Amino acid sequence: MNSLVGMTTSEITELLTSIGQPSYRGKQISAWIYRRGATSFDQMTDLSSSLRQRLAEQSSVGLPEPQHRAKSDDGVVKYVQAFHDGQSVESVYLPYEDRVSACLSSQVGCAAGCTFCATAQGGLARNLTAGEIVGQYLRMQSESERRISHVVYMGMGEPMWNYDEVIKSIRLLGDEVGLSYRHITVSTVGVPAGIVALAKENIPVTLALSLHAPDDETRSRMIPTGRKWKIDEILSACAQYAQITQRNLTFEYLLIGGVNDSLEQAAELARVLNRYHLPGNVNLIPFNYVETEQGFRRPSRDSIGIFRAELEKRGRTTTQRMTRGQQVSAACGQLRRMHESDKRSVTIELTELGMGKC
Ligand code: SAH
Question: How far away, in angstroms, is 332 Cα from ligand 1 center?
Fold first, then answer.
């Protein structure tokens, strides 16, 4: 069955004219799906009931089904959303005072194998289509009173390994949903060819690099792909990105106690970024605890402060990511893993925390 989500307005128009409808129907239906929050044909009240029925017989809007919603006190809602084949991913709704952001997955699982990441532990199941990526956003928007104005590709998966569908989904979010490209951030484990390709797409999204360490040895302990693509090659690609797009990057730095949080490593990080003349913020992310073989732990509050001060002293601007949604296991892949492996225990845990619908 055809899913309409994922199609552009002109593709929907083509579909409608092929069944003898006037071409303005395409625009009308596309607006319902991408801008007016319709999740089924029934809700498209300005279409005749016979047309709605006909459409429903041969196609569907195609949004994923939320299997699970976990709401935290700070308003963060973590979703597990399922697709037609039963595969599921996590998406997160993140309300702030001045904006609402959606964190989307680009793949079911991930092949990167990062040693601190819950998603990595299950490996990769499959890529998502552009429609499945945008569908996560639309499903959350359909349940939100506030407009979701920002999107980050920081859920499950590596966007650069599903490049074409990710680019298509970004264009749909910009051109069809109407988001500003500047409000879209693509986060990568560091795939040099993908970074350079993205620079040439001529879409002014923000690129975030999961750098996490200033030297290859430490980085490879955390990110196995660091053995293949060295920091030197990745940062050269980032410098090209900055030069071609004239945009600042974000450098994500996951802080793990005793692994990458020393004063020397902060100094080295600043030196490395300055050496490549790379503009952009360093976003410090305290490790969101998941059980790991290495026994990784969160850094102390003091060491985060010292690390941050050293970077700033050396001319780097920093932000510290607030840990949000902790009650709902908001680290990448945690909730889905619990959901898959033991649905009962998750329900109990969430009920104990007094959380919403499951
Ligand atoms: N594959 C992409 C995007 C998905 S991961 C990437 O690597 O950037 C999004 C971010 O969450 C990355 O910076 C990743 O390193 C981080 N992350 C994964 N597990 C985490 C954890 N347990 N605590 C904190 N951040 C984590």
Answer: 6
Cα–Cα–Cα angle for 21, 24, 25, rounded to 5 degrees? 55
CA 150 to chain centroid, in Å, comes to: 11
- What number is the average pLDDT over the span 242-264? 97
Q: What is the pLDDT of residues 176-200, one digit of tens each?
A: 999 999 999 999 999 999 999 999 9
CA 99 to ligand 1 centroid distance, Å: 22
Atom 22 of ligand 1, nearest CA residue:
288
pTM over 0.70: yes
Cα dist from 72 to 15, 41, 95, 290, 326, whole Å: 41, 32, 11, 18, 8
Whether 119 is in the pocket of ligand 1, judged by its Cβ within 6 Å, is no
Four-way CATH pick for 2-60: 2.40.30.10, 1.10.287.180, 1.10.150.530, 3.60.15.10: 1.10.150.530
What is the tens place of the pLDDT at every residue in 55-103?
999 999 999 999 999 999 999 999 999 999 999 999 999 999 999 999 9
Measure 189 CA to ligand 1 centroid, in angstroms: 8
CATH topology of domain 65-352: TIM Barrel (3.20.20)
Query: 124-127 and 107-109: which strand pairing?
Result: antiparallel
Is residue 117 part of the annotated active site? The answer reads: no
CA of 52 to the centre of ligand 1 (A): 42
- Closest residue by Cα to atom 23, ligand 1, is 288
Specify the DSSP class assigned to residue 318. E
Q: Dig out the tokens for 220 from the structure.
A: 């490879």
Cα separation, 340 vs 353, in Å, equals 19
- Among 114, 151, 320, 328, name the best residue to mutate to test ligand 1's pocket (greatest count of ligand atoms within 8 A of Cβ): 114
Residue 21 near ligand 1, beta carbon < 6 Å: no
* Identity of the residue numbered 121: Q
**DSSP state string for 55-83:** HHHHEE--PPEEEEEEE-TTS-EEEEEE-
- Please tell me the distance from the alpha carbon of residue 61 to that of residue 3, in angstroms, as a whole number: 5
